[in-house]
Amino acid sequence: MSITTIFEILLAAVVLGLGIWTIAVRETFSATVGFVTYGLLVALIWVRLEAVDVALTEAAIGGGLGGVLLLGAAARLRNADLVAGEAPGKLLRVSAAVLSGLTAAALAGAILLLPDPAPTLAPAALANSWATSLTNPVTNVLMAFRAMDTMLEKVVLLLAIIGVWSLAPDIAWGGHPGPRHQADPRGILAFLARLLPPVGIVVGIHIFWTGANHPGGAFQGGAILASMWLLVIMAGLIDTPPVSRRWLRFILIAGPSLFLVVGLGGLWFGTAFLSYPPSMAKPLILGIEVAMILTIAATLGLLLAGAPERNAKP
C-alpha cells in the first residue's frame, strides 16, 4: 500500500468522523467550526480528484462565505442556546436516522449500479471545444454546452437576494442591510481589513481571468471579492450600501441580464438560444463573465449581510 493510498484513507476517515461530529455536537459554535473545517477538507478531496475548479468553489463557499454566514447565525442564536427548549422525541430522532440511512443507501446503490463504462458526453464536448477558444474544459462546458444551467444559477442568486430583502420591516426598506459593525481601529480585525483586501482583490481578479484556460472562473473570483468586501464591512471601515441605490441594483442584475441578452442574440442571429458565433464566442463569454463576477460578489456579500435593518437617512 502506497503512502498516497494511506493518506487518502486517513483523509476519508477524518472527513467522515468530522461530519458525524458536526451533526452530533450540541454547541452551535463548535458545530459551525466543524462545518467550516469539513468544507476545507472536502476541498482537499476535490484536489485529489483533480477537480481544482470544484475545490476552489468549495473552499470559497463551504469554508469561507458559508462559515461567515454560520458564525453570524451562531452569534445571533447565542442567547437562544441558553433558553431550554423542547427536545425532539425519540420517534423523531429514529425517523431522522432511518431517513438519513435510506438516503445514503440509495446514493450508494445509484453509484454501484452505474453501467461500466458510465455514459458520458465528454468526448463530444472535447471534440467541439474549439468553437469557444477556451482551453479550460470546465469553463467551456459551463459557458457553452450547459450555458442555460449557468444562467439560471445567477437567476437563483437574484431571487435569493430578493427573498432576503423581503424580510425587512417596512420602516427599514431601502436602507442599509445588516447592523453597523464597529471594531477596534487598532485591533487585529481592522489591521487585516486594511492588509488583505488589496491582495485578495488581485487574487480574485486573477482567478477570474485565468478561468478561460486554467482552474478558476467568475464564481470563484466573485466569492473571493465578496469575502474581502465583507472583511472591510465587519471591521467597520465602510458600511453596507443602501439597497435603494440604483447602481447596486444594476450590478445585481448585470450578470443575468447580459447572459439573457447574449442568449437572445444567439436565437436571433444564430441557430439556437445561447449559441455563440465561433468568431465571437470568446469575447462574448468574457463579457458575460465580467458582468457575472460583479453580480456574484455583490449578491454573496449582501446575502451574508442580511435584510435591510437601518434607514438610509442618518
From TrEMBL:
Which residues are in coiled coils?
none
Report the subcellular localization. Answer: Cell membrane
Q: Where is the signal peptide?
A: none
Any idea what this protein is called?
Sodium:proton antiporter
What does the UniProt keyword field contain? Cell membrane, Membrane, Transmembrane, Transmembrane helix
- Na+/H+ antiporter MnhB subunit-related protein domain location is 188-304
- What's the chief localization of this chain? membrane
Any idea where the MrpA C-terminal/MbhD domain is?
14-78
GO CC annotations on file: plasma membrane
